[in-house]
Amino acid sequence: MNFIFTIYSALFLVVSMISFFGAFLAWQRRSVNCAKELALLMIASGFWAFWIIFETASQSVDLKIFWSKLEYFGAVSAPVLYFIFVLRFTGKGRFISTKNILLLFIIPVVTLLFALTNGQHYLIWSGFSSISEKTNIMEYYHGIWFWIGYLAYNYILFILSTYFLFYFIFYQKKVFRAQGFIIFFAGLCPWIASIFYLFGISPVSGIDLPPISIILSGSLFAFAILSTPFLDLVPVARERLVEVLPEGILVLDGQNRIIDINESALSFLGIRNKNIIGIRAESSDASVLLLLNAVLDHETIKEIDIKNNDEISTYRITKQTILSHPNSRLVVIHNITERKLLELKISNQNQELSKLNSDKDRFMSIIAHDLKSPFCSLLGFSELLSENIHKYDFTDIESSAKSIHKSAQTIFNLLEDILLWAKSKSGKIAYEPEEVNFNQICLKVLEILSPVAIAKDISINCPSSFELKIFADVNMLKTILRNLVSNAIKFTNPGGQISIYAEQSGSDVTVVVSDNGTGMGPEALARLFDISQATSTAGTANETGTGLGLFLCKDYVEKHKGKIWVNSEPDKGTTFCFSLPEKK
Description:
Distance between the termini: 96 Å
Number of domains: 4
Oligomer: single chain
Strand order of the largest sheet: 4-3-7-6-5
Strand content: 5-15%
CATH superfamily of the largest domain: Rhodopsin 7-helix transmembrane proteins
CATH architecture of the largest domain: Up-down Bundle
Structural class: alpha+beta
CATH topology of the largest domain: Rhopdopsin 7-helix transmembrane proteins
Shape: rod-shaped
Low-confidence stretches: none
Largest sheet: 5 strands, antiparallel
Helix content: 55-70%
């Protein structure tokens, strides 16, 4: 190949070097938004100018056409890459998808194919001039596809880029406006040069001016990158910031026309039509009218509950005047449903904790009172016995021993109830239900309590002939029966009677423990299962107790998803009933 490298070849060498240098600078900051797009644009421009070096140095028509075909790789790519760069910079990155990029390159690829095969159809170049002896440059006469598929398409991309840039410049702050103007003027240079080239306004006939103009464009980009934080200050545009906010953002003018609105606000208000900019809010077809009315009223801060089916959502609406736009206001809609639910949950937990503390204080007061009596008896009888045992006969010793045993038994039962109640409240009692024979459980409980009943001359009736299956935790069932039967013995007069039986009741089994003892009035019944109202009541033989056993009964029955209730009349007796499931 014979080349004559002229001043024009050197000029395009400088253009190519500036473009590649700008690409290098941009690629150094490729982690910054827009940097990769700018780097690709400068690379395409650099290769465009690079092949022109050889085209201006070639001495034959065929060689010049060959290098011109290679130039088209950069010539068709640069306008598309500039458009993509502008989209990214102005915050329209959502349009930059693989599909859209492929669509943008369809016409450039067709143009490139036509350039590579121009000899068969002459759609790009319809003819050529002779090579100038002074400049070694050849003029190209253009075919129809050059005007339609190359030039017109590129100008469409430039017009769109200009629109996006000016829209961006108008709405951005000063620092971002400067960036926008740099990009605009840098992109404008090749387009002005192409107009000069097409109309023959050129100092050298046939020289390709657009690549030369890249000297100015590349210099602008390089200057901006080196002297200012150009790419570091690429703005976070509205589409990348406002649209991803969970809060609803709405801008209204003095006539309630919608100036701007994001996706969250559309969703909260139930507006399906997204093209409502400029429409009055009242005419936006919002389905959540209560929320819309709250947005439009004049209260600065407002909370509102919106019921949707069985769910209630709570919104907090704040409004602020926009100083730069008189009579306009910014409305922010916060969905605070989860926060309200959390606050309610915390409030309920605090109430439960307060009640638990109150119950604990009340419980400790009851325990302290009820432990005092049996301990005093225990200490008193044991002291008298130890000091005067030589004076007592066997009958006196036996009586004192029984009193000591009775006090110790009372303390033991009380401590057992305390331990079980504490485990129940802390959730440390295992709940392991199984199918059991109710009659067998009942008989085991009575083996323990019968001596107490016999000592008080009380009879207990428990039919032993029936075989009733029940689904329950054995230990819990024993505790329930033990406490109810103990309670009946405590409040039944000597010679009285206690009955225990169970019967099928639908899918449950109802257990009944009744006595003909002292009974209770309405006031005592009302506070029976409430520890905050619990009082110590002596039995018919002055037995003491806290009523803690009844709290255990209620807890254990409810663990089985059952219920417990009581019927009583003064001097006629009391009947306790509770239900447990028959099957799993």
